[in-house]
Amino acid sequence: MDTTISAIGSAVQLFVENPDQWEALRENPALIPGAFNEVIRLESPIQAFSRVTRRTYATEGFSIPENVRVVVLYGAANRDERKYPDPDRFDVRRENVDHVAFGLGTHACPGQGLARMEAHAVLESLTRRVRTWESAGEPRRRFTNITRSLDRLPVVVHQ
To answer: Is the full-model pTM beyond 0.85?
Structure first.
């Protein structure tokens, strides 16, 4: 639940900061699934997760031995410029179904289907009710070891 709430908060912040993207979403709500992917690509609610290797893994000139703990940095992977051109730009039209914000493969988040349904429903409802967003102060991050979320996001909604 915390990750879904974090993602929705991040969505509002990104739309406040990128009013052109909010307008694009309002004009074409069919963009909502891709827009949500873009939100969690940029602001991955879970920034890192660790695993223990079961075998040696080698790639691109380096090797990770078996039986060592490694940390997957989802936030960093989702901003890899080799994968995403202009990775720090928020673009609701970006083709980004391959982000790792929900993990990947056998380690994918089992609740991602529910999280997507919830976030899509909230965004759809907001596109019908919110014409524009306006910042009403500085956002404040919640400091935790793993979850990237907001503690405070003051906004004014114009209907």
So the answer is: yes
